[in-house]
Amino acid sequence: DVQLVESGGGSVQAGGSLRLSCAHSGYPSSRHCMGWFRQAPGKAREGIAGIRRNGDAYYADSVKGRFAISLDNAKNTLYLQMNSLKSEDTALYYCATGSLPGIGWSPLYYEYNSWGQGTQVTVS
């Protein structure tokens, strides 16, 4: 399994920005997709962004235009730049990877088999 470690969470005021990082032990293969998920208390885990090894990026409607996912293959690091943060973005954020043949991504958490421990983002 791929090892994943998130960092960069914290507390920020509404309208502010944060950048999350996810250090990983290596992109498994071109069949894999890496993604960012979040889970707020009492809510289901939500897929918000995914990226393929070639850099093709995908977003959930809830973050499109505000968040940007990127991959630095030289540093084995996945990023999530979050701008124009809202109180509803408050959640525990996870990075994950899973084998998803073909193109595109999936926001469904059960299609990903390697997960980080999560980093808390609080927007007030």
Which characteristics define this entry?
48% strand, four-stranded antiparallel sheet, 0% helix, 124 residues, seven-stranded mixed sheet, mainly beta, globular
Walk me through the structure.
By secondary structure, the protein is an all-beta fold. Helices cover 0% and strands 48% of the residues. The protein has no helices and eleven strands. It has strands spanning 4-7, 10-12, 18-24, 32-39, 46-52, 57-59, 67-72, 77-82, 91-99, 114-115, 119-123. Strands 2, 4, 5, 6, 9, 10 and 11 form a seven-stranded mixed β-sheet that branches. Strands 1-3-8-7 form a four-stranded antiparallel β-sheet, with no helix packed on it. A hairpin with a 4-residue loop joins strand 7 and strand 8 (77-82). The termini are far apart.
Portion in strands: over 45%
Structural class, by secondary structure, is mainly beta
Largest sheet: 7 strands, mixed
Task: Work out the helicity level.
Answer: under 10%
Number of helices: 0
Mean pLDDT figure: 95
The string of secondary-structure elements, in order, is EEEEEEEEEEE
Low-confidence spans: none
Q: Span between N and C termini?
A: 36 Å
Shape: globular
